TrEMBL record:
Domain DNA polymerase III beta sliding clamp C-terminal intervals: 253-377
Predominant localisation class: cytoplasm
SMART domains given in the database record: POL3Bc
Protein name (record): Beta sliding clamp
Length: 379
């Protein structure tokens, strides 16, 4: 096996595949990068059992300038190999594999030799038996992931909550995540998916890695779903992820349908106020801030009392306020995550009772995006 390639282009492909490679795995060969060289392309594969990423570098890719001399396949130790490639002196590099799976990597006057493994011992990629294909614009999928993954649970004691629940039906994609303290739900229209029906749970960590791989040039992403795997195709790169098994909680019943108080804010202005209040709350044991709403006085006061450090109080600017008086306490970090997901929009926060969850929605599109936060009991 022997080929030469432009180093900068190779590193870009290598970085994507390395997202799936972990140094902590019970299968030793999965700490390696699989390279498979055919007569017209170089295929790179990485996997950690949960996710697998395969990318194809074609000889037609002018930026890569791939020159193939001899076909073959090998698995190289990913971490060492990556560090070597990134520190080579010249723009091009040549890799040659001998019959004992030793790789000689040359660039300019530098030459490295590292030991590899037989590629035939590498596990096969999952097979997706689905005939149906969905297409989602890359920027929309990236946005949906970022808006929902913030509410995914990190607690392995309830593994089903470490995933994002995706439901596709009636030409719509519903994505929802909750860690039982907060919830995020997003709905988007899918063109050409009127007949598609899916109900799957994808690990939040998998979708976070996928999101990092979606670039501005990825106009459309193809999705295929089988019984226990999902496949996302981004140009020449295939991203496989396992699905979580089990039934996701009925989150629809958690979202209040009516409210006693509503306040309209600018998301950025409110975020900045919460960030100021959390400077002190982070120093305390409880990490809680309080909102005091008084419609008759048309005032909303944000405050935090941290006995170890001091206290903070700020009168908030708002666009509209309706309802009755309320005092409610919450975790400012949950609020900051939620507010960042709205970008520059105007938002409406709807409250019911001091110990009941409250919702945050974009004022102009209240039906398709909602963040929900559970208050903190302070007495």
């Amino acid at each position: 096996m022997k080929f030469s390639i432009q180093r900068a282009s190779f590193i870009k492909y290598l970085n994507d595949v390395q997202r799936a490679i972990s140094s902590k795995t019970t299968i030793d060969i999965l700490t390696g990068l699989k390279m498979d060289l055919s007569k017209d392309a170089l295929t790179l594969t990485g996997s950690n059992s949960d996710i697998s990423i395969e990318t194809i570098i074609s000889i037609a890719d002018d930026n890569a300038a791939l020159q193939i001399e001899q076909e073959g396949a090998v698995v190289l130790p990913a971490r060492f190999f990556s560090e070597i490639v990134k520190k080579l002196p010249e723009q091009t590099m040549t890799i040659e594999i001998n019959e004992r799976f030793q790789a000689t990597i040359t660039s300019g006057s530098a030459e490295f030799t590292i030991n590899g493994l037989n590629a035939e011992e590498y596990p096969h990629l999952p097979e997706i038996d689905s005939k149906d294909q969905l297409t989602v614009p890359g920027d929309i999928l990236k946005q949906v992931i970022s808006q929902t993954v913030i509410a995914v649970s990190n607690q392995e004691s309830r593994p089903i909550l470490t995933g994002i629940h995706l439901v596709i039906k009636n030409g719509e994609l519903l994505a929802v995540a909750t860690d039982s303290h907060r919830l995020s739900q997003r709905i988007i229209k899918l063109s050409g998916a009127d007949d598609a029906v899916y109900d799957v749970i994808i690990p939040g960590k998998s979708l976070s890695e996928l999101s990092k791989m979606i670039s501005d040039s990825d106009e459309n992403i193809e999705i295929q779903i089988s019984e226990n795997q999902a496949l996302f195709i981004l140009g020449n790169t295939s991203f496989y992820t396992r699905l979580l098994e089990g039934k996701y909680p009925d989150t629809e019943r958690l979202i209040p349908k009516v409210s006693e108080i509503t306040v309209d804010f600018n998301a950025v202005e409110l975020l900045q106020s919460i960030e100021r209040a959390s400077l002190l709350s982070h120093e305390g044991r409880n990490n809680v801030v309080k909102l005091a709403i008084n419609p008759s006085a048309q005032s909303v006061i944000l405050s935090g009392n941290t006995p170890e450090v001091g206290n903070v109080e700020e009168e908030l600017h708002f666009k509209n306020l309706e309802g009755s008086e309320l005092e409610i306490s919450f975790n400012p970090d949950y609020m900051k995550d939620a507010l960042r997901s709205f970008g520059q929009s105007e938002i409406t926060i709807a409250f019911t009772q001091p110990l009941r969850p409250f919702t945050i929605v974009p004022t102009e599109d209240k039906d398709n995006f909602v963040q929900l936060i559970t208050p903190v009991r302070t007495f």
